[in-house]
Design brief:
Helices cover 30% and strands 23% of the residues. With 498 residues, it is of the alpha+beta class. Strands 2, 3, 7, 8, 9, 10, 17 and 18 form an eight-stranded mixed beta sheet that branches. The chain starts with 5 loop residues before the first strand and ends in a 5-residue tail after the last helix.
Length: 498
């Protein structure tokens, strides 16, 4: 079709005749309804995949921890029409000071329409993503823990802790760093155990705010794992290094906080009335495999690392975005033979890079003379714009380039939210389909129109004639030749429908 208009085939509704019969009640069971599991469920539902999400907790976590959505995650929210809803519940701050807490201004001209950090309560982003998944038709069952499973050539039988058995074509473990799915699957989780631990909680203080601020400013010059910040309602967010590495299953006590505050600050600030108390370590581990047959891993089930830089939630959500359309393609029957395997080949190296940069940041948090000297040196180097920009782009995940073979630098990268004649590019990706952005107005997606939309727009601001975008927004092809385009449509979207 050479129409200059945006063209698309409607996605089939669940009531439409399905040419791919389902011998099992569910297409996918997702273990874990955190941000990764909820996002994955929503991405699958965009393609009418029957999804059941199992969450072992009966209620959301009782404490409110603020997390940050980095640039790439904000772009993903925009791609699915979620950004305005998310922005209502968050607070924007400049895209700066992420790397090891080194305070530098945000570099100018970051390549994104959403070049900021959004602080948002963790329970809120979980709720918004779960509501999004349910609105699209996903089922969520709470109080359901995976106790075992068996897989065969046709699917996976999942045993729940209460004795119930469920059947699905695929199982995805999004059940956190202590993933039951990963352990039952027998996938190795090599890395380093925690060497240090940090206490974190929310409580009230018994001294004036000015006294707290002065002491925090003094200690914060050398100790980046220490702060007391007003949280609202008279409460403070308190972070302080622990005395040693304890059992993470056992929450710390208020006395633990008082002891460490006195040891580091010389005062416990009269802390009292805790709302919640927790601890986190600096363990760094990466799953040896992301897929074994019909069982896959995503989010913290596949990788854990210290929270410095605030990358954990973002990494998991981006895993889900990469996996969702590929697993849906496998279930709908049009996936090329190796498509599902690209989930691991693309996302595991990204996790490796995140683990490395968090290792480096943790070294820079050390109060020992050597790391402090290195921190001072890097602080000087970050006055160079290119150094500062490189580190921000790394933390914000906008530097990722998947290996799609030889080609222009844009190939394999995500495309920013450019203006097109129908508004903004990301507004055309809400349905989770591929998109051909055609500045020549003479190409066609032909037999792939049930999976790929086509926008003929000679006015689009691009340095290349045409781009083919995958559903996750990464550039899969650049050019202007129909035959070459058809080959790449086959590579990513399978055989044409006719």
């Amino acid at each position: 079709m050479n129409s200059p208009q945006f063209t698309a085939e409607p996605s089939p509704s669940p009531s439409d005749a399905d040419p791919y019969p389902h011998p099992v009640p569910y297409d996918v069971i997702v273990a874990g309804c955190g941000p990764t599991g909820a996002m994955l469920a929503a991405e699958l539902r965009l393609h009418d995949v029957r999804v059941l999400v199992l969450e072992k907790e009966t209620e959301p976590a009782p404490f409110v921890r603020i997390v940050g959505l980095h640039i790439r995650s904000l772009e993903l929210m925009a791609m699915r029409g979620l950004l305005d809803r998310v922005l209502e519940h968050g607070r924007r701050r400049p895209a700066a000071g992420f790397f090891a807490g080194i305070s530098k201004p945000a570099p100018e001209g970051l390549d994104s329409a959403h070049a900021y950090l959004l602080g948002i309560p963790h329970p809120v982003i979980v709720r918004l993503l779960e509501e999004h998944a349910v609105r699209l038709g996903a089922q969520v069952r709470r109080g359901c823990a995976v106790a075992g499973f068996e897989q065969d050539d046709e699917g996976v039988t999942v045993d729940l802790a209460d004795g119930e058995r469920l059947r699905a074509r695929y199982l995805v473990g999004c059940d956190g760093g202590r993933s039951a799915v990963r352990k039952l699957l027998g996938v190795g989780f090599p890395g380093e155990p925690s060497r240090t631990e940090t206490l974190m909680g929310e409580m009230e203080v018994g001294v004036p705010q000015e006294e707290v601020a002065a002491k925090v400013a003094e200690i914060g010059e050398t100790n980046k794992r220490f702060w007391l910040r007003p949280f609202g309602g008279g409460a403070y967010s308190v972070v302080v290094p622990a005395a040693g590495v304890g059992d993470r299953a056992e929450p710390p006590t208020l006395q633990d906080f008082k002891q460490q505050l006195r040891a580091i600050a010389g005062t416990d600030f009269g802390v009292h009335s805790p709302r919640w108390l927790s601890r986190f370590g600096d363990a760094t581990r990466l799953a040896e495999r992301y897929r074994v047959g019909r069982v896959l891993l995503a989010g913290d089930a596949a990788h854990i690392h210290p929270p410095t830089g605030g990358q954990g939630l973002n990494l998991g959500v981006q895993d889900a975005f990469n996996l969702g359309w590929k697993l849906a393609a496998q279930i709908r029957g049009w996936a090329p033979e190796t498509l599902l395997d690209t989930y691991q080949t693309e996302r595991r190296p990204v996790a490796e890079n995140v683990l490395d940069n968090t290792r480096a940041q943790m070294e820079l948090h050390s109060t020992e003379p050597g790391p402090q000297a290195l921190r001072r040196l890097l602080t000087e180097l970050m006055d160079i714009d290119e150094v500062n920009r490189r580190l921000i782009e790394k933390i914000a995940a906008i530097d990722i380039r998947y290996d799609f073979g030889d080609g222009p630098d844009l190939l394999g990268r995500r495309l920013r939210d450019i203006e097109v004649k129908q508004g903004h590019l990301y507004g055309l990706l809400h349905r989770g389909r591929g998109l051909l952005l055609d500045r020549t107005a003479r190409l066609t997606v032909g037999g792939w129109s049930d999976r790929v939309d086509h926008l003929a727009d000679p006015t689009a601001v691009l340095d290349v004639p045409c781009v083919l975008l995958r559903p996750d927004g990464h550039v899969a092809w650049i050019g202007d030749d129909q035959q070459d385009l058809d080959a790449h449509l086959s590579r990513w979207f399978g055989k044409p429908a006719n």
